[in-house]
């Protein structure tokens, strides 16, 4: 998949060049998520994680590429067909404060997708909602049903958002930084809830996070994105045991290790992630890479299989 967003040029730029400018948010990314998998996408801010999630769910259209769901090409689905697909694929956003309508009571919010998809009615619908609230740990459900979101804590709101995403019994969920804005003390309980629901409802997740410790904890596969491109991808245990790409190594070295007497050496990267408008030539990571060699400035490395996982780096070819 590719997703390029056109950029409005300044007056001077318009005079100087006729060439269009683009933010290359997702720049040729290919991966698959198996049934029952938790697949993490990690990377710094602006690396294209959320855009990838939205592309997969068909919330935005790709500039190029194809998206398959359950063996079907869904890239060009429109109207009623796309609407029908929505109940099978849902999203959980980072911020439960803005993702819930403050004027909708908890019960209404969770029932809303049922209404949209015409699933159950009246008391049957209420029963489904109460069951779901219990499942996400909002118990007794009757006490949460008529409450407004601003009467709840951040963690409770995220539980409501999870209930709303799960109520249509989807098969696939994109969770975009679902615990990043939640108090550290309750993050683990929300992650545990998501893992339990995955088992119970036989779900698959695309789990988006900038926090590698969370990715390590929750997922069985990981892809590391840098400026819209996958630089490394593989089974979580392999990738954390033996990271290959210098960028992955740097990210992993920055994970804090609580109560450890062993002092880990932190790899510090030069500078900030560049703008996705002016992507560096060659390997896009080369200006910040501590292991740069000559070819890195010239040609973009391909993702290749090395030691059981995939890496795009000349150090391994
Ligand atoms: N609608 C849009 N129009 C223009 N540029 C966009 C749009 N959405 C995202 N971008 C740009 O695309 C790039 C990737 O953004 P994206 O939100 O996917 O990154 P991210 O990895 O989710 O970052 P974060 O960790 O901050 O959420 C960024 O440079 C961003 O500014
Ligand atoms: Mg994002």
What does this structure look like?
With 317 residues, the protein is an alpha/beta fold. It has one domain (2-88, 170-316): P-loop containing nucleotide triphosphate hydrolases (Rossmann fold, 3-Layer(aba) Sandwich). The protein is 34% helix and 18% strand. Strand 9 and strand 10 form a beta hairpin. It is globular, with a radius of gyration of 21 Å. The chain binds adenosine-5'-triphosphate and magnesium ion (MG). The site of adenosine-5'-triphosphate has 13 residues, from strand 2 and helix 2.
Topology:
Blueprint: E1 2-7, H1 11-16, E2 21-27, E3 38-42, H2 49-56, E4 68-69, E5 72-73, H3 79-86, E6 89-92, H4 96-99, H5 106-116, H6 122-135, H7 141-145, H8 154-166, E7 172-176, H9 184-201, E8 204-209, H10 212-218, E9 221-226, E10 229-235, H11 236-241, H12 246-253, E11 304-306, E12 309-311
Parallel strand pairs: 3-8, 3-9, 6-7, 7-8
Antiparallel strand pairs: 1-2, 4-5, 9-10, 10-12, 11-12
The structure holds adenosine-5'-triphosphate (ATP) and magnesium ion.
The site of adenosine-5'-triphosphate has 13 residues, from strand 2 and helix 2.
What is the CATH domain class? Alpha Beta
Please estimate the helix content.
Answer: 25-40%
Shape: globular
* Topology order in helix (H) and strand (E) letters: EHEEHEEHEHHHHHEHEHEEHHEE
Mean pLDDT: 93
N- to C-terminal separation?
Answer: 25 Å
């Amino acid at each position: 998949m590719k997703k390029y967003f056109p950029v409005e040029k300044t007056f001077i730029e318009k005079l100087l060049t006729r060439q269009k400018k683009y933010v290359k948010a997702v720049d040729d990314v290919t991966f698959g998520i198996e049934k029952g998998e938790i697949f993490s996408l990690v990377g710094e801010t602006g690396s294209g994680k959320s855009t990838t999630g939205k592309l997969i769910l068909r919330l935005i259209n790709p500039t190029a590429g194809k998206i398959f769901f359950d063996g079907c090409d869904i890239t060009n689905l429109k109207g009623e067909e796309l609407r029908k697909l929505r109940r099978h694929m849902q999203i959980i956003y980072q911020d439960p404060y803005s993702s819930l309508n403050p004027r909708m009571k908890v019960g209404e919010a969770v029932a809303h997708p049922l209404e949209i998809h015409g699933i159950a009615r009246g008391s049957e619908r209420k029963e489904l909602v109460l069951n779901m609230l219990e499942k996400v740990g909002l118990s007794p459900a009757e006490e949460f049903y008529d409450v407004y979101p601003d009467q709840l804590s951040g963690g409770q709101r995220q539980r409501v958002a999870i209930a709303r995403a799960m109520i249509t019994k989807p098969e696939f969920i994109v969770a975009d930084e679902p615990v990043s804005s939640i108090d550290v003390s309750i993050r683990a309980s929300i992650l545990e809830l998501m893992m339990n629901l995955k088992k119970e409802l036989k779900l698959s997740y695309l789990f988006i996070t900038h926090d590698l410790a969370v990715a390590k904890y929750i997922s069985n596969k990981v892809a590391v994105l840098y400026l819209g491109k996958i630089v490394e991808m593989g089974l979580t245990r392999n990738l954390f045991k033996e990271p290959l790409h210098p960028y992955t190594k740097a990210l992993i070295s920055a994970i804090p290790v609580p109560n450890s007497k062993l002092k880990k050496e932190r790899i510090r990267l030069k500078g900030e992630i560049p703008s996705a408008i002016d992507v560096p030539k060659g390997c896009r990571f080369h200006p910040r890479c501590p292991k740069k060699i000559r070819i890195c400035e010239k040609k973009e490395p391909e993702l290749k299989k090395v030691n059981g996982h995939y890496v795009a780096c000349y150090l391994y070819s």
